[in-house]
Amino acid sequence: MRRPGEKFIRNLPLQRKLMLIIMGCCTATLFVSSLFFVAREAKVLYRNQQEYLVSLADMIGRNSAPALAFNDPKPALDTIRPVTEKGNILAVYILNKDGRLFVRYQAAGQVHTALPLEGLPDWASQDQVAEAVRQVTSEAYTSSFLSGYASVVRPIRLDGEQIGTVVIHANASGFLNSLRWNVLVALGFMAVTFLVFCLFSARLQLMISAPLLGLLAAMKEISASKNFALRVTKPCDDEIGLLYDGFNEMLHEIEERDQILRQRQAHLQQLAHYDPLTRLPNRTLFYDRLAQALFHAERAREAVAVIFIDLDHFKDINDTLGHRTGDLLLIEVAGRLGTVVRSCDTVARLGGDEFTIFCQNVANEENAALVAQKLVALFATPFRLGSSEIRVTASVGVTLFPHHGKTVDELLMNADIAMYHAKGCGKNVFALFDKRMNEHASERVTLLADLRQAVELGQFVLHYQPKVDLLTGKVTSVESLVRWMHPRLGMLAPDKFIRLAEESGMIAELTAWVLRTACLQAKAWQDANLAPVRVAVNLSPFHFQRQDVKQSVCAVLEATGLDPTLLEIEITESALMQNDEYTCRVLRELREMGITISVDDFGTGYSSLSYLHRFPINTLKIDRTFILNMMKSSEDQAIVTAIIAMAKSLKMQIVAEGVESVDQLEALKDQGCHEIQGFLVSRPVNAERVARFFTDEDHLQLQNSAAQPLAEGTAQHLVNGKA
Ligand SMILES: Nc1nc2c(ncn2[C@@H]2O[C@@H]3COP(=O)(O)O[C@H]4[C@@H](O)[C@H](n5cnc6c(=O)[nH]c(N)nc65)O[C@@H]4COP(=O)(O)O[C@H]3[C@H]2O)c(=O)[nH]1
């Protein structure tokens, strides 16, 4: 339990506490030492006085001994008298052997009734005298001294035998005066020393407390300013110096931790609001900024354009070229997007390959369209990622505040719908939101849901379209073309669902089914001893570049037992260009296995024959749009002529697609085209019907004879997905 004083002292400021301690210690030391000095002085004085009185008493005793022996007081008095001349002797008594008063001498005019023997009559009894002597004896050492008297009692001996006693009373005032003087000196010394101590302790406490108070001040300053970079200067090398070192070390650690904390906070802030890959604002920040922009735009009656950008077939790039390349591409795309908009606009990455932009104060739809156009144009230049060059396009959807939506969610949803519409229009374009798109979007969602289960439910069928050799008129191969027997919408043509399958990633599953079914069918024809005919399978540009294309083809060939020379792979020009090296390697491996490689829709893509020689291509299929127009347009005719000439120089087989008329057939024959495919020979039909073409007959002759009806066969082509 603490005493109240202790608590008070503990709560005193450090300076006062130090002063109190130093002054307390000094005062106590001074007091004790002065007391010791005074006591010692008193003892010396007292001893001197006593020794003097004893020697005086002994001298009186010696000189009075004969007088005592002869019982004659007079000589004794004569002995005493000169002694009493000493000013401080008050009384001298000589007692005889019997203890009775023998001589009494008192200084003239001085009666001290307080002295025990003073009051005794000369005839006092032996006991009275003895009692008085006993008092003297005791008081000699105690009270008589303090009351101003000093007394001694000494025996008087003669020849060794005590013959009397001498008692001397002296005035102790001299001694007391000396003692007082000593006390005064001591007190004076104490006072002076105390003053010196005061000054000294003030200085000393300052020496101790100043560094501590300095540390305290620095601590307060640092805690107020939060500036942990500050340091205190060490004032000395003692423990306080160590305290300063420790304080500085602590500051250093706090500073480091503070820095780490700040960095982590900034990092968290960055993570919370920015996309770590592209460093663009993320969904949260975009929503926040857009909400603010809408708020201001509403007050200022301004329009805001919200743009949704989605890279076309990004998933396939990721799958085929790896996620690292995908990431690099996204970074490059993010960099390019920033170049189109103003600094007050925001470009964000919502996730995956989805980017959003909002542009403030957009005058009208035309201006918004201009921005969107610029965004689409950004993708015209290929992206250079390390050593390879990647071509990627983007579909862009645009929506305007307040015309197409009032809230962030509404605007983003509509921009997304517009973007899907752009994809539906063939990608690499932009679309401005229109309310009618909503209907289309919901149809698309339903179709996507149906597509997910179509493979499992066996809703796909393959149709086959023969390719005929222009010289022999015989079927060389059949192209397998997928159809979807949709339970509600009827038979759907590939253009209604292939893109959807590509965008949803289901193309891989669908292609696997097509490949397996086509190979099984070809094997069945082979086993039925029909004339050996190749079966061609379309590989989606993005599916083709999957790392496991070769393995999946090999697995299907192995599983079905089909001879690889009876398989043909059709890929588009764009598929060739997406990853030159990888594509080239896979194609070469497939070709080495005996598989025929055809480039489909040739002329619509890069139309550059210069790169073709790098790829192991067997066949070029001239796109049907050129064939369709070649009889009407001299330009298309020239293109067809050029393609045939160059392909021949590269020793490639040429197939003309979409041949519908005998005129086209004749023109192609004249130009040296090798094969044709089109409604003139047959529209795509099921396996059973196409097998009828696997004969040695000249199918061109047969068609020539019935040219007119077949030329009209365009009418038999799929209409809205129905054959
Ligand atoms: N107007 C006209 N058209 C003709 C004529 N001859 C053939 N066609 C049509 O042209 C398309 C030829 O296939 P493609 O160029 O590979 O173009 C194909 C192909 O790129 C894609 N496709 C079809 N099946 C598959 C498949 O299994 N996988 C992939 N990835 N794509 C496929 O869908 C596209 C369209 O296929 P289809 O609708 O079956 O349309 C077929 C065929 O019906 C003609 O004389 N006149």
TrEMBL record:
<dbReference type="Pfam" id="PF00672">
    <property type="entry name" value="HAMP"/>
</dbReference>
<feature type="domain" description="HAMP">
    <location>
        <begin position="206"/>
        <end position="259"/>
    </location>
</feature>
<keyword id="KW-0812">Transmembrane</keyword>
<dbReference type="Pfam" id="PF17152">
    <property type="entry name" value="CHASE8"/>
</dbReference>
<keyword id="KW-0472">Membrane</keyword>
<dbReference type="InterPro" id="IPR033417">
    <property type="entry name" value="CHASE8"/>
</dbReference>
<dbReference type="InterPro" id="IPR000160">
    <property type="entry name" value="GGDEF_dom"/>
</dbReference>
<dbReference type="InterPro" id="IPR052155">
    <property type="entry name" value="Biofilm_reg_signaling"/>
</dbReference>
<feature type="transmembrane region" description="Helical">
    <location>
        <begin position="20"/>
        <end position="39"/>
    </location>
</feature>
<feature type="transmembrane region" description="Helical">
    <location>
        <begin position="181"/>
        <end position="202"/>
    </location>
</feature>
<dbReference type="Pfam" id="PF00990">
    <property type="entry name" value="GGDEF"/>
</dbReference>
<dbReference type="InterPro" id="IPR003660">
    <property type="entry name" value="HAMP_dom"/>
</dbReference>
<feature type="domain" description="EAL">
    <location>
        <begin position="444"/>
        <end position="698"/>
    </location>
</feature>
<dbReference type="Pfam" id="PF00563">
    <property type="entry name" value="EAL"/>
</dbReference>
<keyword id="KW-1133">Transmembrane helix</keyword>
<dbReference type="InterPro" id="IPR001633">
    <property type="entry name" value="EAL_dom"/>
</dbReference>
<protein>
    <submittedName>
        <fullName>EAL domain-containing protein</fullName>
    </submittedName>
</protein>
<feature type="domain" description="GGDEF">
    <location>
        <begin position="302"/>
        <end position="435"/>
    </location>
</feature>
